[in-house]
Automatic annotation (TrEMBL):
Recorded family membership: Belongs to the mitochondrial carrier (TC 2.A.29) family.
Protein name (record): S-adenosylmethionine transporter
Keywords: Chloroplast, Membrane, Plastid, Repeat, S-adenosyl-L-methionine, Transit peptide, Transmembrane, Transmembrane helix, Transport
CC per GO annotation: chloroplast membrane
InterPro entries attached to this UniProt entry: MCP (IPR002067), MCP_dom_sf (IPR023395), MCP_transmembrane (IPR018108)
TM stretches of this protein: 49-74, 95-114, 134-153
Solcar repeats: 51-123, 132-214, 227-309
Origin species: Dioscorea zingiberensis
Gene3D superfamilies assigned to the protein according to its UniProt record, in alphabetical order: Mitochondrial carrier domain
Statement: the UniProt record of this protein carries the keyword Nucleotide-binding: no
Length: 326
């Protein structure tokens, strides 16, 4: 049996693998599966926290950079739609404005998220009962999101200020934000970011993991890249639609700068509803669902492929050094 991908739940009874000859789920085993059951595997090597952490860092960084570069224009359009007040006009130039500076933050943020998520998930899956694997995924997603938020929030603030034309470059954005608003300006909208991203991360990864588990049980094999991509797209689109109002609030608080148009989350919601109507809380839902749906497809597809390659590489026996044998 080949090395398992990191996202596979590590247990010791059922076998679901494309290269396990003759391995099949028995009907009696299928009947015993409960809601939110996890896919389990044969006994394998002891859990190596640092290897999982390292491979998660690499896989997360790779997936984050690929999806951010591919879909940045859609994200820019979404941000401008959400930031526009009343009948403000949307400009369509500079859709890649701020990409380079954003990648500087996206790479470590994605690395930290997946690097924390993977070992946390595997530890929790061993601690939780098998029929509660969904709660392990939810908790791991929230913990990963909280850890990466320390990098993601300043990155998001700078990116969105540049997307709305407030600054010409990332260094200028950092320098002027700190000069006018202090270091806290880089964390503008932090509470709204956590309010949006912690449930987003938890829900998206939980939906993705649970769909993969169910699909594996039905298919009785490991999933291929297109299947992982489709599941990732579905998980991203659903989660993106649900959390759009939180994203609108986060955008408004992050781009307001020193104007202080809103005094916190509650005032932000009340002001938007009073001045623009409840429908304004769904501004940008189309580009957001499209962006996160396609992004989920690319992110999870690249993530699973990278993790598989890293897992296979770490499982290869090291070649003997000829000089030592002489």
């Amino acid at each position: 049996m080949g090395p398992p991908a990191l996202a596979t739940d590590v247990r010791s009874s059922l076998v679901v693998s494309s290269d396990a000859s003759g391995a099949r789920l028995l009907d009696s085993e299928l009947k015993c599966l409960k809601p939110f059951a996890s896919v389990t595997m044969e006994e394998e090597k002891p859990f190596n926290f640092f290897r999982v952490l390292f491979e998660g860092f690499i896989a997360g960084a790779t997936a984050g950079v690929v999806v951010e570069t591919a879909l940045y224009p859609i994200d820019t359009i979404k941000t401008r739609l959400q930031a526009a007040r009343g009948g403000s006009q949307i400009h369509w130039k500079g859709l890649y404005s701020g990409l380079a500076g954003n990648l500087v933050g996206v790479l470590p943020a994605s690395a930290v998220f997946v690097g924390i998520y993977e070992p946390t998930k595997q530890k929790l899956l061993k601690a939780f009962p098998e029929n509660l694997s969904a709660f392990a995924h939810l908790t791991a997603g929230a913990i990963g999101g909280a850890a990466s938020s320390l990098i993601r929030v300043p990155t998001e603030v700078i990116k969105q200020r540049m997307q709305t034309g407030q600054f010409a470059s990332a260094p200028d954005a950092v320098r002027l934000i700190v000069a006018k608003e202090g270091f806290r300006g880089l964390y503008a909208g932090y509470s709204s970011f956590l309010l949006r991203d912690l449930p987003f991360d938890a829900i998206q990864f939980c939906i993705y993991e649970q769909l993969r588990i169910g699909y594996k049980i039905a298919a009785k094999r490991e999933l291929n890249d297109p299947e992982n991509a489709v599941i990732g797209a579905f998980a991203g689109a659903i989660t993106g639609a649900i959390t759009t109002p939180l994203d609108v609030m986060k955008t408004r608080l992050m781009v307001q700068g020193s104007k202080n148009q809103y005094n916190g989350l509650i005032d932000c919601v009340q002001t938007i509803v009073r001045e623009e109507g409840p429908a304004a809380l769904l501004k940008g839902i189309g580009p957001r669902v499209l962006w996160i749906g396609i992004g989920g497809s690319i992110f999870f597809g690249v993530l699973e492929r990278t993790k598989l390659l890293l897992s296979e590489r770490s499982a290869r026996p090291s070649k003997p050094n000829p000089s030592k044998e002489q």
